[in-house]
What we know:
mainly alpha; Arc Repressor Mutant, subunit A; 3-stranded antiparallel sheet; 3 strands; 6% strand; elongated
Amino acid sequence: MPYGGPVTGTDSLDPIAEAHRQWSARWPGHADQMAAVTSVMRAQQLLLGRIEAVLKPFGLTFAAYEALRLLAFTRTGTLPMGKMGQRLMVHAASVTNVIGRLERRGLVGRAPSPDDRRVVLATITADGRELAEAATAALHDADFGMPGLSPAQAAAITAALRAVRASAGDLPAEEVPLAEDTPLADDTPLAEDAPLPWRATTERRP
Length: 206
């Protein structure tokens, strides 16, 4: 079975439902949590496979798309690479790898910060912006790999997973939304997408 693809074959058994049945018979107090975790992990595989299939014609992985989209959301198209790692919730080495690939395609440029040469700035190019917009339109057309899911259902999933993230310490202690008239710094992504909300929890090769 290819990574991210549906289960194939003649067996119509849902492995997660069967695991839930077995758990319920042995450890009924933990069956629902087990099924929820297993379902999230499986859904992550399926969704990432669908999304990367949409992005493949653009020559982008999801990690590369996220980097372009993050830069495109800033007012100047520029961010320190260290801050990109924070916003994308990945290791600095992953950002370096992704930006290096995008730079070789002329989609992003890198340069030392004029204020601190130890800081490397990544800047999206005009070609990078154009590609990011085209890829975003394709993802919108594909409903981000979740066709048929209503906005209310998507919001319910986000809310449920937010509780999981909060319990794991993945959210700041206090989250104060920016007022509409609050000026943004040049390196601040537009409020509705900072940080990128769709970040997959499993890093994959850019």
